[in-house]
Structure formats: structure tokens, C-alpha cells
Amino acid sequence: MNVPRYALDICKRFITGQWENITSDEIVVKQLSGGFTNQIYHCSLPEGREPVANEPRHVLLRLYGIGTTIPGDNYKVTDTLITLLMSERGLGPKLYGVFPGGR
């Protein structure tokens, strides 16, 4: 998988402004370590591209890994719901979107 291209496609679905105008060669993507099964990426606008409205300069992209659930387990739903509630109450990072395979 071409991670920068995939990350940008996801960001363009949920974030407007400069995110719509950059290419997969320009987006800055760094994989963060520490996850057991999920992959977490720090994505940011390139140097010289300032946000034009309220869009973020940096976002985290979480891709669910194999083995994050077992049949009948609602882990992903519960985890996403908790993240959404914390975001809405200002107790966690803003949730910009949920998509099959991540958020």
C-alpha cells in the first residue's frame, strides 16, 4: 500500500482547505510506534502550506490492524464511540471522520 497516497485520500474525504490542494508527494506522513496491532500515522501539511480556515495542520490517522477484534466483539464500535464522545466534550482530539478500517 502506498501510505502517503492512501493517507491523503482519507484526509481529502474529511478535511477541506489546503488538504484538498496537496499531492501525495507533498503530504508529510510519519508512522508512530507503540501500537500492538493498529498502525498510527502523523500526517501534516508540507512546509509553506498554511491552513486557510479551521482545518488542522496535523492529523493522526489510525488504521485498524488484523486481530483487533474477535467474532462477536464490538471493540471497534465501542472504541470509536468513546473517541467521538471525548472529542465532542473537548476531552480528546477532534474526530474528523470514521471509515472502514480506521478513523
TrEMBL record:
Q: Which Pfam families match?
A: Choline_kinase
State the Gene Ontology terms under molecular function.
choline kinase activity; ethanolamine kinase activity
Q: Does the keyword Acetylation apply?
A: no
Family recorded in the similarity comment: Belongs to the choline/ethanolamine kinase family.
Listed name of the protein: Choline kinase
- Record carries keyword Nuclease: no
List the taxonomic lineage. Answer: Eukaryota, Metazoa, Ecdysozoa, Arthropoda, Chelicerata
Q: Which UniProt keywords apply?
A: Lipid biosynthesis, Lipid metabolism, Phospholipid biosynthesis, Phospholipid metabolism
Going by the entry's taxonomy, the superkingdom of the source organism is recorded as Eukaryota
GO BP terms: namely:
phosphatidylethanolamine biosynthetic process
Task: Name the GO cellular-component terms.
Answer: cytoplasm
Q: Which organism is it from?
A: Medioppia subpectinata
